[in-house]
Write a structure and sequence with these properties.
Length: about 425
């Protein structure tokens, strides 16, 4: 999801990056904000959930209002911040919100709030909602490192996770409040929290309990110790597919070539450099896989004999002999489990349909995603894509220009139809 919450592109005729999307679109999230300095980060969580199409009701504890005013949340969500549990006219708010909210997320969750939840307290609106809800609860701890490491805090968190089944995200290690240096206790990144909310919002689906392997990004083939042959792939499409599969409940391995993108939350990322590296990583992951999505832009050619030392300009223009790099997807054919669903990509210029069909047949794919590299907003180094999905029978589904996160969802919708049932 890196870069997903930037400014929209509507002025250029392209779809906005921050518009409503699955699984947050049309869903109801209760966001609890308690009294810690990390409360300022909750403002972005509320904003981005709203931009993604969720209806967000913010519940602030009394101490949270000392850090961020309720008017800030109201301005970003378009909904009033809920008053206290005993305010006139709101006596049953805790019951109504507990029933309506599809996820309750507390970010930040202070040591005191965690202790009260662990002991079943309901002495304010937020803890009363948590006690009354039957929806998933996500706790995002944030506190000083000494408080986080205290045995009582750890025991409280274990109780919430193991006995009550609450999700726990974080804390991470990083810079704490002024003068406290670095340590564990920092609230998890806002987008990581939003992704975990998304996973909780996904209904039971064919990806629950499945294992998905995705490749993404370019490969680099060395010419000498400082030069490489590569391409312009950013990895965004593969990263979006991996993130969406994890949100749907899958165990995901992402084999990623060189890219600056942050790892998607919950996804196991294996970084590789060359086509041979990617080939080995895919083969190792294949036996356990239910779905393989080869979204990486693997080099077709590589230098036959990379120089051991840097090629010098003074030696003249070199002649570099090339050889074929491994065709990773075709090479997997004898190693594929019988249950495996296989999706390939074809990056083409022009029409590309016939070449995509040839690749689909030669590599024995279940379907192929034809990616149009020469159309505005498609291909490499952009946040959007326009693709056509083609199956073995030749049936096609052409998608309009949309952000890659939405393209990923449509690809997984098609793959879900092919996953074996009853396993």
């Amino acid at each position: 999801m890196s870069g997903a919450t930037g400014p929209g592109l509507s002025g250029s005729g392209l779809p906005p990056l921050d518009g409503p999307r699955r699984p947050w679109r049309g869903r109801h999230v209760i966001l609890g904000v308690t009294g810690g300095i990390a409360a300022y980060k909750s403002v972005r969580i509320a904003r981005d959930l709203t931009l993604f199409g969720a209806m967000v009701d913010v519940i602030q504890t009394d101490s949270a209002r000392d850090f961020v005013g309720g008017i800030t949340f109201e301005a970003l969500t378009g909904r009033p911040v809920r008053p206290g549990i005993a305010d006139p006219g709101h006596a049953l708010d805790h019951i109504r919100l507990a029933r309506e909210g599809e996820v309750v997320c507390i970010a930040p969750a202070t040591a005191d709030t965690i202790a009260r939840l662990a002991n079943g307290r309901a002495d304010d609106l937020l803890t009363a909602v948590v006690l009354a809800t039957r929806s998933p609860v996500l706790i995002c701890p944030a506190m000083n490192d000494a408080m986080w490491e205290h045995p009582q805090t750890r025991a409280n968190v274990r109780h919430l996770a193991t006995s009550l089944g609450y999700g726990i995200v974080g804390p991470s290690t990083g810079r704490l409040a002024w003068g406290e240096g670095r340590g564990p206790g920092r609230m998890a990144d806002e987008m990581e929290i939003i992704e975990h909310i998304g996973r909780m919002l996904e209904p039971p689906n064919p990806f629950n309990g499945r294992t998905v392997v995705v490749t993404a990004g370019p490969t680099r083939e060395p010419v000498d110790p400082v030069r490489v042959i590569s391409n312009r792939s950013s990895g965004r499409m593969g990263f979006a597919i991996a993130a969406a599969a994890w949100r749907r409940g899958a165990t995901v391995t992402l084999v990623a070539g060189p890219t600056p993108l942050d790892p998607p939350p919950g996804v196991r990322v294996e970084r590789v450099e060359t086509a041979a590296d990617m080939q080995n990583a895919v083969r190792a992951a294949l036996p356990a896989a239910d779905l393989l999505v080869m979204a990486a832009a693997v080099a077709d050619f590589r230098p036959a004999a990379p120089a051991r030392t840097k090629i010098k300009r003074a030696d003249g223009v070199p002649t570099i002999a090339l050889e074929s790099a491994p065709d990773i997807l075709e090479e997997t054919r004898p190693h594929r489990p019988s249950r495996l669903v296989v999706v390939g990509f074809a990056l083409e210029t022009g029409d590309g349909h016939e070449e995509a069909m040839r690749k689909l047949e030669r590599k024995a794919l279940d379907f192929i995603v034809l990616n149009h590299a020469d159309r505005e907003g498609s291909g490499f180094e952009v946040e959007t894509n326009r693709v056509t999905m083609i199956d073995r029978s030749g049936d096609t589904e052409s998608l309009p220009l949309m952000i890659k996160a939405e393209v990923a969802e449509r690809i997984l919708d098609r793959a879900a139809e092919l996953l074996p049932r009853g396993e």
